[in-house]
């Protein structure tokens, strides 16, 4: 397939009008003009084209739509430490939210356990198109979910001291297990080995400033790779975070009301402050914010002062890098998946449905 005259908005590509050649579900070439004879040729007449959008923190397919808490599979309530739980064993692609997401231009997302447990389980990176999760997976385990703050505190009637002690104790156990070549197999400790070795990140739910600082302190103690997810009150410790620009910040869900005490810092103004001078991801935490509203979140960040190009990166290449799948998705380049979105008007700053969405070269 050949797409002609695309007004391309693409991280890593100079703004302009381009042709995009797609073969076997991959981007074959991008150039101002391509001479090729293809069975399908689509002239988009200078409409906008972006990469498929990416969200690095959702619970898509784990919290059932319109069915209530009983049918939710995102929190395993039997143990405060549940690293053996795998998102791919519970993600339901038949959930209507998948269709809603891809129709809005979101083609890839993270989906994984919730924040009830201090260690919640294994987060997956998936495409939003498919009927069998195994066929949709880019990485079945790219990060280990961890949670600090009010959710585990309330769920297990503990304190912030207790949460930190529980996490530290478990990390000590996991470290000893990983360093012992003669260890006996342990279902809980085995998935922690790549975390201890820095091969997988701890994906840490933290809203309050105190929890943000605790997350950094503990991860530094054990020399872990990690991301800070939500960071709702991060502006209260802005100087602290600015000294650590290498830490990925996944910001959101920012659209919506402040439904609990630890969300008092929720605002797009604070998102813009936290994004200054560093790469960030914008997240919906779907279904907290429906995943199809990710473009709206980008638009609201732009309205509060985030540069357009940075907002585009925050919902494309940055989350792809956080999940380690930037070789497949996140921007349009030869060899990458042909996941792209066609927009009539400039995306994010105009609320609209896409004209067309392609995932691996297939129009959806």
UniProtKB/TrEMBL annotation:
PANTHER family, alphabetized: ALPHA-D-RIBOSE 1-METHYLPHOSPHONATE 5-TRIPHOSPHATE DIPHOSPHATASE
Residues annotated as domain Amidohydrolase-related: 303-364
Leader sequence residues: none
A molecular-function term among this protein's GO annotations: hydrolase activity, acting on carbon-nitrogen (but not peptide) bonds
Record Gene3D superfamilies: Metal-dependent hydrolases (3.20.20.140)
Descriptive protein name: Imidazolonepropionase
